[in-house]
Amino acid sequence: MLQDIAPLRLDNRWQLEQVVQADSVIVHFQQSKVLVRTAAASADPLFPLAAMVVGEDQSANYRYLFHIGGQSYFLCLAEHVRVPAGYGYEPARQVRTAKQAPRSTFFAFYTAWHLATWYQHTRFCGHCGQTMQPDGAERAMRCPACGHVEYPRINPAIIAGVINGDQILLTKYATQHLGHHSTFYALIAGFTEIGETLEETVAREVYEEVGLYVKNVRYYKSQPWGSAADILAGFYCDVDGSTQIHMDKQELSRAIWVPREQVVLQPDDWSLTNEMMARFRDGQSC
Q: Which residues, including other chains, have CB under 8 Å from residue 90's CB and lie 6 or more apart?
């Protein structure tokens, strides 16, 4: 999956004293676009290094994010940066399908995207309206006026592999997803609501989207998914009673039972959804 980058590892400890170095990776957003290498195949890094974009008077505009494999990543807070040759701004949601780079680079980007969105949404105190400041001891934003503290937001969500004997329920979204119309099948997914367990989320989302009851809800694995600030929890479950699908056409364009041998996987192996589909297809324990 996306986070499987061994032997590299993410070191996301908050280190306020970190400063931009020439070989630091710089992530810079302009609204929904990100500064990225424009050539699909190139020896240049996917995201620019500090030596390419940072001027002598700009170091204060960069906020430390994390390290991966000894390389530091920084978020650029300036409105504009020097755009090096061979780079330009492209929709952030298209980076996954349009580029070639090590998986660790994409994992770093999705994690940076998560933090960038959180920083954007916590510029001002939700309690008194004053400008927030980075906390000196931990990854948090603190209000200097009233002391209110905000930590990075993580949204819990589920993925449900609904099984009916030798068939699994596959779906397609009805509207644009991840910046483009979905052309591949996925599993049912949704966010956990207030006062709801993850298992209850599975049952509710399945019923809301396809009108089916489920039983034997069992946890499989989790995955961070930074573009939506998610922590995804994957579950398998069995259909309970009728297998007649009543699809929510506002959410889905298609929902079908697919035999094990006919499951077609997604274009890459980054997602928890794809891994769960593959596991069922290959007859592994679900």
A: 33, 34, 36, 38, 98
